[in-house]
Specification:
Order of helices and strands: EEEEEEEEEEE
Structural class: mainly beta
Radius of gyration: 14 Å
Number of strands: 11
Distance between the termini: 40 Å
Strand content: over 45%
Helix content: under 10%
Length: 122
Amino acid sequence: QVQLVESGGGLVQPGGSLRLSCAASGIISSIYVMGWYRQPPGKQRELVATITTSGTKANYRDSVKGRFTISRDNAKNMAFLQMNSLKPEDTAVYYCYTVGSTSTNGPPLNYWGRGTQVTVSS
């Protein structure tokens, strides 16, 4: 099985920046994509960004384009989310996400971290 642990959340003022980290551990054969979701208070979980294993293809939801950057370090099994120009509407619990397998020919499965709180407020 795969475990994902997020870190780097906290309280910041509008216009500030945060860098979230996600560390993957456990039995890992292959990781196909990694990404970040978030769940604002009172709302459903939404996709923030994803990145492929090669790190050459990234996708972002429209509201964060130009402000957020996703990256990964395959050697360390880590993913990151650099968040700049933060807005109050970015307030949410942010979840690390991966699609991976735990054996050579095993099926790809979804894994989720437990989340880290990001609060943007003055």
